[in-house]
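re: ur question from the group chat, yeah i did fold both. here u go
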Amino acid sequence: MKSALSLIVFDLDFTLWDCGGMWVDCTDPPFRKTGDGKFLDRSNRFLKMYPDVPEILAEIKEMGCQTALASRTERPDWARQLLDLMGYRNCFDFEEIFPSSKVAHFANLKEKSGIPYDEMLFFDDEARNILEVGNLGVKCVEINRGIDREAFRNGLKWF
């Protein structure tokens, strides 16, 4: 019997956003929003969500599925600041943003959400995370150049 999809989990760096070609913990806060809606750090590095992220999050909401973030950044405070500034932090039901293994992130997600691993779908750009989390029973999709509609829909089909 096939499991129901109950939780969709995203990594941040190079999966949902690009922090000027770097991880968020390598940026230079404070972050700011310009008058034309761009996001920059102190070094004027351009920070952005990948273009299809708003549509993907809207689609998940229509599906009635829960969402989560799992990021192992060394600067969780910076990640949260940037999520708040961009207006995306409230789009997620759960967030596990701290420097540790993705296995720890997913153990926390399972405990907090009550959702079993086989009802979770995870998108990440790092093969090691895909392997570790996949060994838990989570369906995982490796993202190569940021999430887009095609990769998201392929992940849904594969689930």
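okk and heres the other one u asked abt
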Amino acid sequence: MSIKTIQELLPRIPVRRISGSTDHAVSQLSFDSRTAGQHAAFFAIKGTQFDGHDFIKSVLNKGCKAIFCEKFPDTVTAEDVCMIEVENTAFALAMAAANFYDHPSKELHLIGITGTNGKTTIATLLHQLFENNGYPSGLFSTIQNKVGQQILPATHTTPDPIRINSLLREMVNKGCSHAFMEVSSHALKQMRVFGLHYSGAIFTNLTHDHLDYHRSFAAYRDAKKLFFDILPPTAFALINTDDRNAAFMVQNTKAGIHTYTISGDADFRGKVIENHFEGLLLKIDGHEVYTRLIGRFNASNLMAIYGCARLSGLSEEEALRGLSQLHSAEGRFEFIRNDQQIVGIVDYAHTPHALENILKTINEIRTHNEKLITITGAGGDRDKTKRPEMAEVAAALSDILILTSDNPRSEDPEIIIQDMRKGVPAEHYKKTLAITNRREAIHAAVSMAQPGDIILLAGKGHEKYQEIKGERFPFDDKKELFERLSDKKIV
């Protein structure tokens, strides 16, 4: 257990005023009043739903010894407690967490990946590549966290600062030399990754997502840019020049700028030679390499991985050999071909751009003598503006479109489907179906599929649940689709 005095938590935190002694010992950091225990330092953070300042009295009753807040409470007085007024409690928490765990990010090579699409694949496969090359590594991802090969549950794409620094300390203690982290726009806006020392950062691309939270594309873009603004001069910034936002991301960075591409000129250049359901043949910096990943979007992901590997000290041979050994992240273009040659594909694509990438990839590979049946939905309580856009893309690039429920959360799934249908052009009405029950939608797609047809089930990927009215019910897209295809009888 780590124990620090309040004074030891304060470096790099802008403090307005302090009341009480900073010599008190603190054995826990908390921003959740429900988990704050005795001898904890509590950070009163203003969230989207709750304001931590409303719970100061509650945590004092539990024995908290330090309160970090943006305004001293008017009515609360407590002896033997240190009150610290700061400019921003979210920033203070990030700095305090790094101080509390003795800055573990400085003891390994921490690489962050940000952008709309590709974060999970790149982070997961970098972890895989470095582990395969003999470098024990950590992973922070949407699917799971890892310390070496030990799997730990993930509740957020990017955890809170306490969890991040705690896991980084565990990674260091267990001999990890590298760590790879998905960095979300939410985490940047909420300063969860401030106070960390990054060795490098990767920008993948920027498309429509999370506008329910950021309110505008410009705000979303600016949140991503924050990551490159906070990089130290010793870090590298690796950007995808195939995306028009790449140059903007690094306008103010102190890091060394490097580039990758699959369609132009850059420091790390790749070209797709062959693209099949069985994999990609790429030419990378003059060398041909075969990989088991599929599609141009994955070619771009592989170039980010290759560039990062080279910038992190791996030789050309180690990096290229590593690419050829990689296997896809769970729920990312996983496919099966049954005995009738029907192909079933499961993918996490849940934005218009990601869905378009997947469908374009399938259309590039297919013969067009078969049907492409797409099953997709949209999450509830999330950005509503992308719903019609997703349906429009799916209708244009599929032979049959089935709109269904995703994770409706607190919303009525039929209302979500109605929102999606608004994006379907009139000429595609006849080939668009609505089947609210996701399991029934999968069964319907398999029933109508003929030998050689392709079924894409998009939106949930690795998730093993469906969230309805605040409850998570077991549901596995891959299991449902693959079992139905395996059971399909020849007629």
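fwiw on the second one: The two ends are 64 Å apart (CA to CA). The CA atoms of residues 145 and 152 lie 5 Å apart. idk if thats what u expected
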